[in-house]
Amino acid sequence: MTPVGCCVLYVLRWHFQTTAGFRGSLRVVAEWATRRRRAESTGAETLRKPPSGRLLLLSERDQLTKGDAITVARIERGVPALVSARDLGERFHRMVRDRDAAALPAWITDAAGSVLASFGKGLVADQDAVAAAMIQPRSNGQIEGQITKLKLVKRQMYGRAKLDLLRARLPAPA
Is the pTM value of this prediction over 0.85? Predict the structure, then answer.
């Protein structure tokens, strides 16, 4: 510690002892001063980890912790476009969950003027497929899972063996 810094700490300690009846050691004052100096140099707001996009856009508002709710409220006050994006995200999530394909054209119209406009344009390009995915009870999830598993095994074995070993590693179709 520099002599100037040491003098400043002694003065702070003397000030706290005379005005507030402080009986702590010089070390306590030094730690307090260090914490305060670091907070001022970095800014108190940067000490906190920034919230994720999932927290800002996809979380249910009633399931947020108090700290997260305060953070989301501050951010929404500063970025009004985020409020409309969050509402559109909740509407889209509810629409998919409820399998309400009739609400899709209205949602796309509302999304056209927001930050989700490019997502809405992508849905317009595949609007029939998106509506069918909401209505149909079937899913291609099982097929995609099998393809992913096959590709994983293939990548693991790349350059090591031929087709006969690949057949031996995969289960026979039922």
Answer: no
Q: Are 75 and 50 in contact (CB under 8 A)?
A: no
Q: Are residues 129 and 57 in the same domain?
A: yes
146 three-state secondary structure = helix
Do residues 169 and 157 make contact, with C-beta atoms less than 8 angstroms apart? yes
At 34, the amino acid letter reads T
Q: In this predicted structure, what is the pLDDT of residue 133? A: 86
- Scanning the chain, the segments in alpha helix (DSSP H) are 3-20, 26-42, 53-57, 66-78, 80-98, 104-111, 117-125, 127-135, 141-156, 163-169
Shared domain for 42 and 60, answered yes or no, is no
Residues in CB range of 72: below 8 A, 6 or more apart: 51, 55, 56, 59, 61, 64
Asked if residue 131 and residue 58 are part of one domain, the reply reads yes
Query: Are 145 and 117 part of one and the same domain?
Result: no
pLDDT in tens, 24-70: 666 776 777 777 777 777 655 544 566 676 666 666 667 777 877 78
Range of the domain at 107: 53-135
What's the average model confidence in pLDDT over 126-131? 88
CA distance to 108, 114, 127, per residue, from 123 (Å): 8, 14, 5
